[in-house]
Specification:
Layout: H1 7-28, H2 33-37, H3 41-50, H4 57-66, H5 74-88, H6 91-99, H7 110-161, H8 168-211
Helix pairs in contact: 3-5, 6-7, 7-8
Length: 216
């Protein structure tokens, strides 16, 4: 008996590990050799700006190209990045980023940042309000499930109440439990009705927030 794996299984494991390592290493490199050699740094900067990257993004490119003996042209990169940020730092995109729960790294230049952040905050607020509605809907479902469980429990007790052979003492106990459960049901049903009304109002407000959104 041996703990060693068969050769073909060991080879398969090594191949998987090697592939995973290659993916990991490759994922860290922003540019490959051909891209470094033929780099149009202004275009690369523009693409990074259009994705909302800060100046520090060039450090990743520098690291990727250093092993090929190539250094980025910072001035051309930065000119392109600032041009790309004009496309990314718009109020419309700010709203979209906030609504999508994306973080903001502070990449937008000062002339564009004010309107971007205003729209970004609006998007975050809409997202937070929608999340509140979702939580309330989840709570409502739990309450409805609890009400259904009460109905089943009440039905079981009523069946027992009319069953032959039940002692008078047990009948009195059941009657008390049934009255208490019916009272609990009434309170829970009122809470459900209040929750449904509140959710209707909240949904109307959310729809208004979206329809009156100035950053469409």
């Amino acid at each position: 008996m041996t703990d060693r794996l068969p050769r073909f299984e060991m080879s398969a494991i090594l191949l998987i590990c090697a592939s995973a390592l290659a993916l990991l290493v490759g994922g860290c490199a922003t540019l490959d050799k051909d891209e470094c050699v033929n780099a149009d740094w202004q275009s690369i900067g523009y693409e990074d700006g259009a994705r909302g990257y800060k100046t520090s993004r060039i450090a990743n490119h520098r690291k990727a190209c250093a092993k090929h003996g190539i250094a980025p042209d910072f001035d051309r990169y930065e000119r392109g990045r600032l041009k790309g940020l004009e496309e990314w730092c718009t109020p419309r995109n700010g709203y979209r980023q906030g609504l999508g729960g994306k973080g903001y790294s502070g990449a937008c230049p000062e002339p564009l940042e004010g309107t971007f952040l205003k729209a970004y905050t609006y998007g975050k607020d809409v997202r937070a309000y929608a999340s509140t509605i979702q939580r309330q809907e989840h709570d409502l479902k739990k309450m409805v499930t609890e009400l259904d469980a009460m109905d089943r429990e009440l039905g079981a007790m009523e069946d027992e109440l009319v069953s032959p052979g039940v002692s008078p003492r047990r009948r009195r106990q059941l009657l008390g439990e049934i009255r208490q459960l019916e009272e609990d049901q009434k309170f829970l049903l009122n809470d459900i009705n209040d929750m449904e009304l509140a959710l209707d109002d909240m949904q109307v407000h959310l729809n208004r927030l979206k329809s009156e959104n100035p950053y469409q």
